[in-house]
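look at this record:
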Amino acid sequence: MVELNWTLALQILNFAVLFLVLRRIFWRRIAEVVEARRGEIADNLQKAEAARKEAEEMRRSYEEEMRKLREEARQIREQARRQAEEMKEQIIRQGREEARRILEAARLEIRQEKYKALTELRDEVVDLTIMAAEKLLGRAVTADDHRRMVRELVEKVGNGD
């Protein structure tokens, strides 16, 4: 069996008194430190949550900004492509118009040169005809003879005979 003696009872009593004294002296201070620490922890948790929310908002803002920038870049590329296409079409139109003008100018010059050549040829033919007629007739051709021969020659050349 267990023997209870007075020493054990006094030790328990000593412990209880010491506990009550220490509690009375230090318990309030310990409770204040614990409460202060609890408040700091709660405050730090609130700050951490606020920082997390701010970081999340910054991330969302960054993602939105990146989306806008991507869209803007796409629009710029699309606009540049359209402008390049329009410039290409304009250059092609200008090239075709310039080619048409050059061709028309060349045709006009050809017509003018042809007319000039035909005129020179007619004058040459008239002169040769007059010389041939003078040799054949053995006399000088009068102005009336000249007009008649020129008219006949022009009619023949004009008809393609």
